[in-house]
């Protein structure tokens, strides 16, 4: 089961619709065009179009599985007394004083450029359940880091 916000769920539905209604017909047209060019055994365009079709169908099926397993979180029931999914968490690295802010989201909504980290990452796992003022000792590839929870919000 994949927990996600309603916004994330709607984005996935829009992406699925785009793939099925725009991208799929484009690839079908490319396959038909390549097929019209003759001998399929030596037709690189045909092979490339068939491979692209396979990749697209795989992506569509994966999206359908994620959407089928999705559980939309009722944001009105979220609390900020401890860190949980969809919370925005302000952190301070205890060692160097550097501050950072992350929003903990589902795997499919993660986007580091937007400050959204997956609930499955080591940092998010170490923060879940922590309260303001708690220090989480988290194992990351570079070693252990201590992050203090400064604030929890939406």
From TrEMBL:
A Pfam family this chain is assigned to: GreA_GreB_N
Signal peptide: none
Superkingdom field: Bacteria
InterPro entries listed in its UniProt record: GreA/GreB_C_sf (IPR036953), TF_GreA/GreB_CS (IPR018151), Tscrpt_elong_fac_GreA (IPR006359), Tscrpt_elong_fac_GreA/B (IPR028624), Tscrpt_elong_fac_GreA/B_C (IPR001437), Tscrpt_elong_fac_GreA/B_fam (IPR023459), Tscrpt_elong_fac_GreA/B_N (IPR022691), Tscrpt_elong_fac_GreA/B_N_sf (IPR036805)
Record bears the keyword Metal-binding: no
Domain named Transcription elongation factor GreA/GreB C-terminal: residues: 80-153
GO biological process: DNA-templated transcription elongation; regulation of DNA-templated transcription elongation
Record's keyword terms, sorted: DNA-binding, Elongation factor, Protein biosynthesis, Transcription, Transcription regulation
Keyword Transcription belongs to the record: yes
A GO molecular-function annotation: DNA binding
Sequence ranges assigned to domain Transcription elongation factor GreA/GreB N-terminal in this UniProt record: 3-72
Family in the record: Belongs to the GreA/GreB family.
Purpose: Necessary for efficient RNA polymerase transcription elongation past template-encoded arresting sites. The arresting sites in DNA have the property of trapping a certain fraction of elongating RNA polymerases that pass through, resulting in locked ternary complexes. Cleavage of the nascent transcript by cleavage factors such as GreA or GreB allows the resumption of elongation from the new 3'terminus. GreA releases sequences of 2 to 3 nucleotides.
The protein, known as: Transcription elongation factor GreA
Taxonomy of the source species: Bacteria, Pseudomonadati, Bacteroidota, Bacteroidia, Bacteroidales
